Amino acid sequence: MPLQEEKIYHLYRLLSQFGELKRKNHFGGYCLLVDNAIVGVLLDGHFYLRGCLFAGSHFEASGLNRLVYSKKGIPLELRYYQLSEQMWHDEKLCIYYIELAYRSAIEELQQKCSAIRRIKDLPNMNMSVERALGKIGIYNVDELRMLGAKACFLKLRQYGRNNPSIKFLIGLAAAIEGCHSAVLPSNIKQELINWYNNVD
C-alpha cells in the first residue's frame, strides 16, 4: 500500500533528526540523503532503506523485503529494504532501522572518500585528464578540491596545450562534487556557463 502524505511527512521528520536532509531523483522516484549519504529511496509510493555494509545483513536477518527493480524486463534485487507496517507503528523501532541505514551509509561514504585519491577515479575524469592536470601541478584529488574547478580550468588554459571547453569545466566541477556532470544542479551549471562566457 503506497505511503500517505502524513507518513512521508513523518519519515522526513525522522530522517531530519540525523542531519541535513536532501532529495534527489533516482530510479524514477527519488532518493533521500542525510549529510550527503543515501539513506533510502521513495519509489512508487513506497519507502526503502538502503542496506549497505553492516545494515544490509541486519535487514536481511530481520526479513525485510528487498526492492525488486525491473530493468529491460529483467528483475533485479537491489540493496534497498522496505520498512514493514509494524515498524511504521513503532516509532522507536522505525528510528532504530533508519539510524542503522544512516550510520552504515555515512561509513560507506567516508570509505569511498578516503579511497579516492587519484583524479582519474573521480566521476567524469579519466587518465588523460589526470595527466593534463599533472602537467600543471595538480597531482591528486585533495589539490583539485582545494583549487576548485575555475582555478584548475584557468591554469589549464594558461599552461595546457588545449583550450578546455565548457563541457570540461562542468565535468571538473561535478567531479569535485563527486557526481556525474548530468546530475550537477542546473543553477551551478548556469553559473559556470556565465563565468565561462565572461572569462577573457
Automatic annotation (TrEMBL):
Listed InterPro entries: TfoX-like, TfoX-like_gammaprotbact, TfoX_C, TfoX_N
Domain TfoX N-terminal residues, every copy: 14-104
Leader sequence segment: none
Tree of life domain: Bacteria
Ranges for domain TfoX C-terminal: 117-195
GO biological process: establishment of competence for transformation
Pfam families: TfoX_C, TfoX_N
PANTHER family: PROTEIN SXY (PTHR36121:SF1)
Name recorded for this polypeptide: DNA transformation protein
Organism: Providencia heimbachae ATCC 35613
